[in-house]
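Task 17 of the worksheet. Students: predict the tertiary structure of the chain below and write it out as structure tokens. Keep your answer in the requested format; marks are given for formatting as well as content.
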Amino acid sequence: MTKMIKKYYPEKVLETYLHIAKKLEADEKYAQAEEYYITAGEWKVAVNMYRNLDSWEDAYRVAKTKGNDISAKQIAYLWAKSVGGDSAVKLLNKFGLLENAIDYAAENCAFDFAFELARSTMKNKMPDIHLKYAMFLEDESKFKEAEAEFIQANRPKEAVLMYVHNQDWESAQRVAEAHDKDSVADVLIGQARFAFERGEFQKAESLLLRAERADLAVKYYKEASMWDEALRVCKDYTPNRLMELQEEYEGEASHDGSRTCSNSTARLPTRKKAGNTRRPSTDTCKSLPPLPRITTSSRSVG
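Model answer:
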């Protein structure tokens, strides 16, 4: 029959082969069906036929010989996922695909399987899986669960940034104090900036003083043209910079013609009051960058 079709209806040859393959598959003549599927140029259908039969070895064989390397790896991954446990690890090791399979699982949100594969023989991959899972949970707005995963990934600062991005200052402070002391000041500074932008000046000042960043309080007040407040904070906490600030204020007042130095309540101190000054912080101002919204982690995973 196929010879006649080739001779008289060559345009229907592949369609005929496919029809025969489906009939053979229905009759459970799978090896013959495979042959006709491949002849019809439908090797993927043959692979799926074997997958549906749980005949993974045959599915892998067809994908490997008739498809490409990527297809073979995908079938090996699905095969391993179907068996699970130690058998999956052994199978993937046999093909030299264990690490690739772990990465593939994590990137495709199959986190349980990724953890399952990594726990036994590749524990070094665990932090990376926790990090990707954390970013996935963050995208799902499951912040408490994301926090736990960030901490297990040894990336508590990412949890702090997550909460800062969502203006959950209490949670940001809690995580910073418990797991990342270096971020405590950053949280206070971020909260202070937020408060200052809302006009809560005293609250912002208090937060900056807790962070030992009186210099930022002066800076924020100065940028808002609140010179009396800037001079007051500078006099109380960074007196060594008061003369410079006073001169800057006088120059600003002279330029505007609307303010005079005599209106300022701050004056250069004649002596230092014991215990009333703090050493200015020498740390560089650490600005909290806006948390990028991701993908498995506009934030850097590395």
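Marker's comment: Confidence is low (pLDDT under 50) at residues 259-298. The chain is about 70% helix and 0% strand.
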